[in-house]
Amino acid sequence: MTVSSNTEYQGEEDVYIRLRGAIDRMPIGYPATESGVEIKLLKKLFTPIEARIALALGMLPEPVSRIHRRLKKELIIPREELEERLFAMFRKGAISMDASLGPSRRRYSLSQLAIGMFEYQVDRLNADFAGDFEAYIESDFKDAFFRSATPQLRTVPIGKAVQSELKVAPYNDIRKIISAAPEPIVVQNCVCRQSNDVLGEPCAHSDIRETCFVFGDAGTTVLERGSGRLIERAEAFSILDAAEKAGFVLQPQNSRSPAFICCCCSDCCHVLRALKRLPRPAEHFSASYVAAIDVGTCNGCGRCVVRCGMEAISIREKLAAVDADRCLGCGACVSSCARKSITLINRAGKTPVPFTQTTLYVRILRERFGVNGLLRIAARLLSGKGV
User: Fold this and answer.
1) Angle between helices 37-45 and 127-136 (to 10 degrees)
2) Under a CB-based contact definition with an 8 Å cutoff, are residues 184 and 217 in contact?
3) CB under 8 Å to 373, separation ≥6 — which residues?
4) In sequence order, what are the residues at sequence separation of 6 or more whose Cβ sits closer than 8 angstroms to the Cβ of residue 246?
5) Same domain, 35 and 181
6) Sequence-ordered list of residues with C-beta below 8 angstroms from that of 279, at least 6 positions apart, any chain
7) Distance from the Cα of residue 382 to its chain's centroid
8) What would the pLDDT profile of 365-385 be if each residue is shown by its tens digit?
9) pTM: predicted TM-score of the whole model, two decimal places
10) What's the number of domains the chain is made of?
11) What is the pLDDT of residues 250-309, one digit of tens each?
12) Nearest to 143 by CA among 31, 309, 40
């Protein structure tokens, strides 16, 4: 190992505080807490040297050569060693990597906590990390996650839950999304269910664990990290069938060409659990539809009440009633109704789905920092200054 410092080192704690600040300038943020649990999480992911390397990373993927030039202001490290360290940091889920240009031209970037570093811990999660993440999301992080008017995730309905006369856009049809998804198609274990497992609170909803799909370049990256399993499109549909039968909420990335789809339940999913505690969950999620009850055929059996993970349905005067402020339009209730008394209808005032992942995060940055702040961020990125 050949590493030396080019700057006065202020101590181990200082580098983690600086790294927290860098991650906090990303779209979702990484706020400080009184307990310091966010620093504990960083120390579990980064050694002090790795934290200093991470400070040289940008918000967008960059080649090792550019990162090496920037890092010279902080550390003197041979380029070959830096490349090895960056790949090792990627493999343990501390940073992001883009391998779309091939293994000899890997590019690296700083990662958000979620969606990001937490999800990268799948198949390597332990109770210590899971417990600290739970503590953080229950304190300050949930406010950062839901702060933006444009959420990272959205729901698409299961099966044929939408009213037949409505025209469903391809990006709102789960089967069309998977049919059009670029290969490779990779399925992963659900990191939220694994978190509950290691904390001794296994999912009460289902024994299924492989429920997260990743597509294209993102799928290749997952395989390079050493997690996930390559599957054929036909198996993806079979897994989807099982997820729909279990009543899972289908949550793709909030773009028209999502890189991933999570099949979630409100028992385990940190996002859904946090939403459930809010008075109006639908305000903080991208949902194109809302459930509607046919009072002429509903017999008030209550199956939909049990099936709904958001507590959006109740029985009033012996009939099911939907609270639109709580309904995410997932369609899980539709498949539970033997009398076919529930359908999904278009939600009024729904926001347009971003076209790409880049569009999504640019929109979130603009909402958080304003147009001038977004321009300053763009200037830093273009000038090679990183985050």
Assistant:
1) 140
2) no
3) 365, 366
4) 205, 206, 208, 265
5) no
6) 325
7) 26
8) 999 999 998 888 887 766 666
9) 0.92
10) 2
11) 999 999 999 999 999 999 999 999 999 999 999 988 999 999 999 999 999 999 999 999
12) 31
